[in-house]
Design brief:
The protein is α+β, with helices and mostly antiparallel strands. It has one domain (33-206): Alpha-D-Glucose-1,6-Bisphosphate, Chain A, domain 4 (2-Layer Sandwich), CATH 3.30.530. Helix content is 27%, strand content 28%. The protein contains 4 helices and 8 strands. The longest helix has 18 residues, at 11-28. It starts with 10 loop residues before the first helix and ends in a 16-residue tail after the last helix.
Length: 208
């Protein structure tokens, strides 16, 4: 006769083990993102000594430059009248003063390694799209204002496989830094030969 007591389940122990495993997985699956402080914020707008048309040409040149450098991570340019606009983009670009504006659309690909957000002491890949507000001030100057849209960082990989038996990226929302916004302004200024733009502000630890 089989002694059933030998096969009885200690439900309390099972629950304790499951809780411990869940806590372990949660701890492993939630990376900590370190945000480093800038000495001061970077400008997110700049007045260029060019016309709106010249500014648009500079943005196109920036696209071609980035596509040559890294074709898999280059942005796309969206403007009023494009067919693939989202409803929100179309509404904004067709609103007052929006006809000259542009979206820079990275298709959820990292634009660069962050200079502000770090995971495990290493810079985290930074993801964002950007809205460029373009305003003619007079016959000689055009103001460009850069807005980062829904920025995120890739903070690591999931502990367990998810899709096609591969570990998925962990995307965490973050606040805009002003670094990426001003980097775009600097690249535009470089293409147009703009001089006298302030130096990019980065965390002090990166200057040492």
């Amino acid at each position: 006769m089989v002694d059933a007591s030998r096969y009885s389940i200690d439900h309390g122990r099972v629950i304790r083990v499951l809780v411990a495993v869940a806590m372990f997985l949660a701890a492993c699956g939630t990376p900590q993102v370190e945000q480093r402080t800038l000495p001061r914020l970077n400008p997110t707008s700049y007045d260029f000594a060019v016309s709106v048309d010249d500014l648009h040409q500079a943005i196109e040149a920036l696209y071609e430059q980035q596509f040559r450098e890294r074709p898999l991570n280059a942005f796309s340019i969206a403007k009023a009248g494009d067919e693939l606009l989202t409803d929100e983009q179309r509404e904004r670009l067709t609103g007052p003063g929006g006809a000259d504006d542009r979206y820079l659309w990275y298709m959820h690909s990292p634009m660069s390694l962050s200079l502000v957000y770090f995971v495990g002491g290493k810079p985290a890949p930074y993801i964002a799209d950007f809205y460029l507000g373009i305003e003619a001030l007079d016959g000689q100057f055009t103001r460009v204002t850069v807005e980062a849209l829904e920025p995120q960082v890739i903070a690591g990989k999931t502990l367990l496989p998810r899709h096609e038996l591969s570990r998925a990226n962990i995307f965490l929302p973050v606040s805009p830094t002003t670094v990426e916004e001003y980097q775009l302004l600097l690249r535009i200024g470089q293409i147009m030969g703009q001089s006298g733009m302030p130096e990019l502000q980065v965390p002090n630890a990166l200057r040492e």
